[in-house]
Amino acid sequence: MYWILLALRKFKNEAGVLWSYHNPVRVQFGPGSFEELGACIGGRSYGLVTYPDAFCTELTERLAALVGPAAVVINDVAANPDYALLEAQTQKIADAPAPEVWVALGGGSVIDSAKVFAAANGDFGNVARFLETGSGAEALSATPIIAVPTTAGTGSEVTCWATVWNEATGKKFSLARPNLYPETALVDPALMCGKPLALTVSTGLDALSHSLESLWNVNANPVSANHAVYASREVMDVLPALVADLENIELRSRMARAATFAGLAFSNTKTAIAHSLSYPITLKHNVPHGIACSFSLPIVIESVTGVGGLCEDALGRIFEGDMPSAVTKVSNLLTSLNVSTKPADHGVGDSEWAGLVDGAFDGERGKNFIGEKDRFLKAAEALGAAAA
Q1: Could you say which DSSP state residue 158 is in?
Q2: pLDDT at 266
Q3: Alpha-carbon gap, residue 387 to 358, rounded angstroms
Q4: pLDDT in tens, 19-44
Q5: Distance of CA 53 to CAs 60, 73, 75, 133, 304, Å?
Q6: What are the residues whose beta carbons fall under 8 Å from the beta carbon of 30, sequence distance 6 or more?
Q7: Using one digit for the tens of pLDDT, what is the confidence trace for 228-286?
Q8: pLDDT value for 10
Q9: What's the longest Cα–Cα distance across the chain?
């Protein structure tokens, strides 16, 4: 036993830290793969969660033609799933036959909502209590989920958590349960063709943020880092071309693949400081999530330059060893997509910014960050983003 402990200690000293990687989601990818959804359902009764728009209505009809109608349909999902709406939706579910599997057909808000319904056991109060107190896990359920994303960004199709908002109290929660990993992520880039410009930019930048946030992260590991390097390079290469050619199936496929790899990266690390900073900006200033969590990326990169270790190695691979240009490259990408890197342009003044930074570093996601607050503030000042 002594020699085993000695070997482990030596391994830690030489390689940094013991690590593990786990993701149980079966990923089925490719244009036209929507037609395989019936096989994924496999004869089970299903509940459908989707958006109320014409596109999702058409997909709902296609699905019904494949396998028959859903046992229950929730088709009034809104952006940033909120307590009040989720409670009303869960009551509707409680009044219907319980499905054997949930099909989430839409973007991140749809998939997150499906996770709430899968866990609620017919009563949103079960979820609310767990979110607010950490107790009551025994009252939660774990109905299987098939996630069919129609946007490329959130990565929720390969994670075991859901973002839940309580706008009445100004709070954001994360419902995190190992049994909320979808059993299947069916990623069909054809469903993403024609998505509007603003949505394409916001979700694409969300994917970039997910991949980078998994690197400057206390939970980073070599597998997540490899996924993040691939995803970051792809997003930065593809997104500028995609915004000029929204119907291009090859570009949509690359973007969808990059978003899934970003999801696989942060599925094991969670996010960090850029996301922690973003939540109050979205709540208070109504800035779309993908923008709110990405405009500060140049500041974060500047603040972690020279940190060493896995983060520095991965960033070096993303930027081909040219770290002095990394901040400029990401800043130029954001600017080319009409996303300002200055907090003031997102409604955040200097006095509010200081408080937001304090809160972000104290938040759950902020504590995942390997960097330091003083360096972050100095980076923001150096880049002209905000006063120190």
Answers
A1: G
A2: 98
A3: 14
A4: 999 999 999 999 999 999 999 999 99
A5: 11, 14, 9, 35, 42
A6: 187, 188, 189, 253
A7: 999 999 999 999 999 999 999 999 999 999 999 999 999 999 999 999 999 999 999 99
A8: 33
A9: 65
- The tokens describing 296, both together, are 């500060």
Domains defined for the chain, CATH in brackets: 26-190 (3.40.50.1970), 196-382 (1.20.1090.10)
Q: What are phi and psi of 264, to 5 degrees?
A: -65, -35
Separation between Cα atoms, residue 281 and residue 83, nearest integer Å: 19
- Tell me the three state secondary structure of residue 174: strand
Tokens representing 342 are 């200055």
Q: Which of 28, 25, 44 is nearest to 182 (CA)?
A: 25
**Tokens coding 273:** 């400081």
Q: How far is residue 226's CA from residue 53's CA, in Å, rounded to a whole number?
A: 37
Contacts 24+ apart (CB under 8 A), 379-382: 379/299, 379/300, 379/302, 379/303, 380/296, 380/299, 380/353, 382/302
pTM for the full model? 0.94
Q: Tell me the CA end-to-end span of the chain in Å, nearest whole number.
A: 52
- What is the 8-class DSSP label of residue 53? S
